[in-house]
Amino acid sequence: MIANAVNVDHPAIERRPACALDPDSDLGDLPITVAVGPLPDTVIAQALDSGAAEARRLRLCGLIEGAAISLCGQWRIETGGTALARMEAG
Q1: What range defines the domain where residue 78 resides?
Q2: Number of domains comprising the chain
Q3: Phi and psi (nearest 5°) for 7?
Q4: Is the pTM of this model over 0.85?
Q5: Which ranges of the chain have pLDDT less than 70?
Q6: d(CA 30, CA 75)
């Protein structure tokens, strides 16, 4: 669920309906990411912030202890009692 929340619309992201990739898929017409080209840092940050918000929601509901999510070398960490951390690989 958290990985699905690391999402943003951008022309560099190519999606196709799941059923076009696998007619037996139970996902039907749900768009599936099939390719990702270069993304600007602001777009990466937006996608990660979205995923981090979902991780925080799940943590506050008591469903997870924490999460570490990454995209293109950028990270977000969600752990109990701390604010979302921003880290850059490097």
Answers
A1: 2-88
A2: 1
A3: -150, 150
A4: no
A5: 81-90
A6: 26
